[in-house]
Amino acid sequence: MTDRVPSGLLRWDAHQRGRVFALLRFSLLFWACVYFALVAVSGHTYFRSIAFGLAASFSLWLVLGSLFSDNEPMPVPPVALLATILAWAAWCTASLAWSIHPAYSRAEVGTEIGWGLATAAMFFVATRAAYAFRIILTTVVLVTALLAVMALHAALTTSGFDPDYALVHRHGGVGAYSTLIVLVVPLLPLLAAPRPLGYGSGWLPLLAASVVFALLLVAARITENRMIWVALAVGLVLAAALAAWRWRQLLRRAPLRWGAALLVLLLVVGTLFVDAALQRAHEGFRPKESVAQALADDPRIVLWQHTFERIAERPWTGFGYGKSILREELQGEMGDPMLAHAHNIFVSQWLQAGAIGAALLCAMLGALAWCYVRYLRAPDGTLAAIGVAGLVMLATFVVKNLTDDFLIRPTSKEFWALNAVLIGIGLRMQLGFPGAAAPPASEAAVTRS
User: Fold this and answer.
1) For 379-433, what is each residue's pLDDT tens digit?
2) Is residue 258 one of the residues assigned to a domain?
3) Are 216 and 185 in contact (CB under 8 A)?
4) Which of 56, 281, 367, 420 sits CB 3.0–4.6 Å from 124 for a disulfide?
5) How many domains does the chain have?
6) Quick check: is 123 in a domain?
7) Angstrom distance (rounded) from CA 161 to CA 174
8) Which domain holds residue 150?
9) Is 447 inside a domain boundary?
10) Predicted model pTM
11) What are the DSSP calls for 401-426, one per residue?
């Protein structure tokens, strides 16, 4: 005789599994948001590790459920993007074989590559639907705004305010926080995206996005970082150019409105850059020095000369993975403890992993940009807006890191997480996954009827 399982029991099992997977999806989304918040507030390492472990476990469970059970299917990241990321990670890991400080490189590979790619994977899985994207975006914006309020409060209430000291325990210092700002600012317009991806284009979401934007500009000025203004200016021009190309019909109707808005924003950013540069010049060892002379005398210029001399010793393979692989050597040559690494994301990668590693990093960034270009060219306006936000975010991050290297520690996790969120929701929208976007107006009308 053949044993038969009652059909009612099969239905009950499927129902129970569905409830379990729904609980797992909610749990992953919750702990991913908690994890991002704790990464931004970088001092809470114990709770951050717990949140990371739970989110990673839930995402792995959901992936296995999609492969071997009846959990909802998951899209596979674009082949070119996946291949370049894995190739870059593999080459950096291979540098352990020739690293001049193997123990240091081993620790950096685990912390930056292993942890960073795990962060990207779990946020990619977490962004399963439009509502999940909205929740993650809201968390990111609120956490960044909260840090801005805390920095502003410290500046107003503390005598002899030191921005780096005030922010170092909250987000790794002014360099890391200013990098977080350039990652988040391009995402603010998505708050006004149509529901359920955003909150709609009503006056309240637009007002909230504008207030947060103004708050982040104030916080950026508090950091006294100069490069953030260059990055934001490039981002504004790029966003305007991409939007003008994608929505050229709207531009033809109101060209002056678009141009005037861009001009005002560029004037604000330019004014804040000059103000920050003047303050940095006046607080230096030569307070009467002009801004142009202060920029010309920037010690990073000499640092890059020394760095290229070092690169010439190992041009193809580098000295081993790790931002500060030549910390002692550079500090000794420069006589400045702050000049312990290359202060340029591409030069830093060349120093660590050689020309091959730098080329693979460029290929990875290029693959990310190509994904966003595909979204930009999609017929769906919301998906195109995600493409614009992704390209601008990528550009501002790269420009900000032309004078530093923040593909490390909290900012690297934020970089991986935010790109995974944008790529994840964009891919699901592109492939027509259920719940990835609001239904068209005609479908919504049919649903209501």
Assistant:
1) 999 999 999 999 999 999 999 999 888 888 889 999 999 999 999 999 999 998 8
2) no
3) yes
4) 420
5) 1
6) yes
7) 13
8) 14-225+298-439
9) no
10) 0.88
11) TTSS--SSHHHHHHHHHHHHHHHHHH
